[in-house]
Amino acid sequence: MLAAGLGVGAGLAHGGSGDSAGQTRDSYEESAKRLPVRKFDVIVAGAGTGGVVAAIAAARQGARTALVEVKGYPGGTVTEGGTALHSFYNLWRAIPGVEKRQVVKGIPQEIIDRLIKVGGCSGHAEMTQGYNYDSVCTAIDTELYKLTAFEMLAEAGVFVYVNTLLTGAIMDGQCIRGVIVESRSGREAFLAQSFVDCTAYGDLSAHAGARYTEPNDYAVCNSVGIGNVDIDKYHAFLEANQVSGQLAKGLRSGQPDRIVRAGAEWINVPGMAEAARTIGMGMITTTVHDNYLMFIKCNLKLPVSPTNRDEVAKAELEIRRRMAKAVEIFRKYVPGCEKAFMARTSPSLCIRRGRLIECDYDITLADVLEARHFDDEVMVYGFHDSAPRYQVKNGSTYGIPYRALCVKGIENLYACGMMITSNHDAHMSTRNTVCCMGQGQGAGTAAALCAERKLGSRDLKYTQLRGALTKAGVYFDT
Ligand SMILES: Cc1cc2nc3c(=O)[nH]c(=O)nc-3n(C[C@H](O)[C@H](O)[C@H](O)COP(=O)(O)OP(=O)(O)OC[C@H]3O[C@@H](n4cnc5c(N)ncnc54)[C@H](O)[C@@H]3O)c2cc1C
After folding, report:
1. How far apart are CA 293 and CA 282, in angstroms?
2. Whose CA is nearest to atom 2 of ligand 1?
3. Ligand 1 in contact with 77 (CB < 6 A)?
4. What's the distance, CA 379 to chain centroid?
5. Ligand 1 center to 197 CA (angstroms)
6. Confidence band (pLDDT; 50, 70, 90) for 8?
7. 23, 35 in Cβ contact below 8 A?
8. CB of 446 within 8 A of CB of 465?
9. C-alpha distances in angstroms, 28 versus 12, 19, 94, 187?
10. Alpha helices, DSSP H only, in 41-105?
11. Is the CB of residue 104 below 6 angstroms from any atom belonging to ligand 1?
12. How much is the mean pLDDT over the chain?
């Protein structure tokens, strides 16, 4: 017998006397409905940073894979929030004597290779200033990233369902049998053997009845792309005001050795400093085009978790005001930006954490800082977003264990991306784009292997997973 999860047919009434149509004063009971069914081996929820890689990995293992995405394109927060992809490398530049190593490869690196070919990436541009933070800056063209990801998904044979919201889970005890999705084509049931939750909000896990909390420990933040500007003049402006911090040179508008990352931790220009502070504006930007500041961030702290629709609606308005204000500030204060305009905005509020999903293992800050490795790891990683305050020991790496992706209490569900890792300072490492991508490759590969063998996630032999990941080009330290 299949039982409905939280999101399906809950129909809870909150007081008042019901009438024959199942209505009360403040609730309405939906009637049951027969849904069309589609069958897959693996379903990945959310075509974002981790989800794209998870779906490609699963499909390449031979699994019939569905990817469900509410927006009209794949990409997620890597195309909407972040300034650069942190980080494919260890922190070799910060620590004398440490060997330079690329520690994330596999599908994430394939995406970069494809982007470079179409002029959509700076390459792994070495940081020449601020390298205590990261050794390289990998900046992307957000629009070409979406297209490249879409094409790679199609080439891998993934069934990509964009403009489709996942709204429920079909449960059989602790096992997910399927998900409910909604689109303009109607409400449907997608069935599969294995599931990967890459929704950032943990929607699938919550529908499946997984345990979660909502820490609300970050500001939400949108980024605005500012067009008709001059990044060299922006850098000169930071230098003139003696605040120039991070700097990297790489591929820009097809030319090598151009500034692709410039920034200051703070600004000291009277008027500008106060205006920037009022709208939570950051001064670090990246670009791969001559006349474009690709990411200027505007932060806003919500009083409650970003799963609260009504608070988010208020924030969407406020943050749009802030993004418009950010462009005004650049026009007013920064030479070369007098005719700047808003060229791109995040389509909806970007979050750094929504639901925190409880998994079999919770990565600790000591795991990250002490560069700990595990006997079931799916990837290694060497970046910390609070560097130099927190760094992975000796410019080394730590491992992401497989069990950190297995959702506690559910037999066939993985979570990856920003939904894992409870400790805020450890999360400041695991939530970064390249780590989310690597987790996606681990979870998608595991889901496909489990589906093929009809196994629950805890029955998969690690040697099989490790073999498949190694064959697919994933880097391991040992
Ligand atoms: C403002 C900001 C700046 C950042 N800066 C950097 C940076 O400079 N460098 C860096 O490395 N990291 C940065 N990060 C962190 C990093 O970008 C994110 O943590 C990471 O991209 C999250 O990836 P994810 O796969 O967990 O989620 P996402 O990439 O957000 O993917 C989730 C996807 O699921 C979809 N989805 C959600 N719910 C549903 C549903 N019910 N049905 C269907 N689809 C659904 C969403 O539309 C989205 O496409 C930043 C984050 C933010 C917010």
Report:
1. 12
2. 81
3. yes
4. 16
5. 12
6. very low
7. no
8. yes
9. 8, 10, 59, 18
10. 49-60
11. no
12. 94
Distance from the Cα of residue 398 to its chain's centroid = 19
**8 A C-beta contact, residue 195 and residue 204:** yes
- Token pair listed for 400: 């992401």
In this structure, how many other beta carbons lie within 10 angstroms of the beta carbon of residue 1? 4
| Among the listed residues 71, 34, 53, 6, the one whose alpha carbon sits nearest the alpha carbon of residue 202 | 6
Q: How confident is the model at residue 6 (pLDDT cuts 50, 70, 90)?
A: very low
Atom of ligand 1 at shortest distance to CA of 437? Answer: 25
Instruction: List all residues 6 or more positions away from 123 whose beta carbon is below 8 Å from its beta carbon.
Output: 112, 116, 138, 250, 251
* Centroid of chain to Cα 451: 25
Residue 176 Cα distances to 99, 196, 219, 359, angstroms? 45, 11, 33, 16
Total-model pTM: 0.95
Cα torsion 447, 453, 454, 457: sign:
negative
pLDDT at 4: 36
CA angle 409, 412, 417 (to 5 degrees): 85
Label residue 21 by pLDDT band (50, 70, 90): low
- Which amino acid would we find at residue 340? A
429 lines ligand 1 (CB under 6 A): no
Q: Residues 342-354: what's their mean pLDDT?
A: 95
190: tokens are 């997608």
Residue 269, classed as helix, strand or coil, is coil
Q: What's the confidence (pLDDT) of residue 3?
A: 37
CB distance 67 to ligand 1 below 6 Å: no
* Range 384-390, long-range pairs (CB < 8 A, 24+ positions): 384/428, 384/429, 385/86, 385/428, 385/429, 385/431, 385/432, 386/425, 386/428, 387/91, 387/94, 387/132, 387/133, 387/134, 388/94, 388/132, 388/133, 390/365, 390/425, 390/428, 390/429
**Containing H/E element for 463?**
helix 462-471
| Domain boundaries for CATH 3.50.50.60 within the chain | 1-13+21-120+141-216+353-478
Which pLDDT does position 81 carry in this prediction? 85
How many Å apart are CA 321 and CA 300, to the nearest integer? 11
| Span 329-354, average pLDDT | 96
Fold entry, domain 1-13+21-120+141-216+353-478: FAD/NAD(P)-binding domain (3.50.50)
| pLDDT over 50 (residue 175) | yes
Type and span of the H or E element at 227: strand 220-227
Instruction: Verify whether ligand 1 is closer than 6 Å to residue 44 (CB atom).
Output: no
Q: Is the pLDDT of residue 388 over 80?
A: yes
Please report the pLDDT score of residue 478 as a whole number: 75
pLDDT of the residue at 10: 38
pLDDT of residue 15: 38
Please state at what angle helix 106-117 crosses helix 142-156, rounded to 10 degrees.
120
Answer whether 149 contacts ligand 1 (Cβ < 6 A).
no
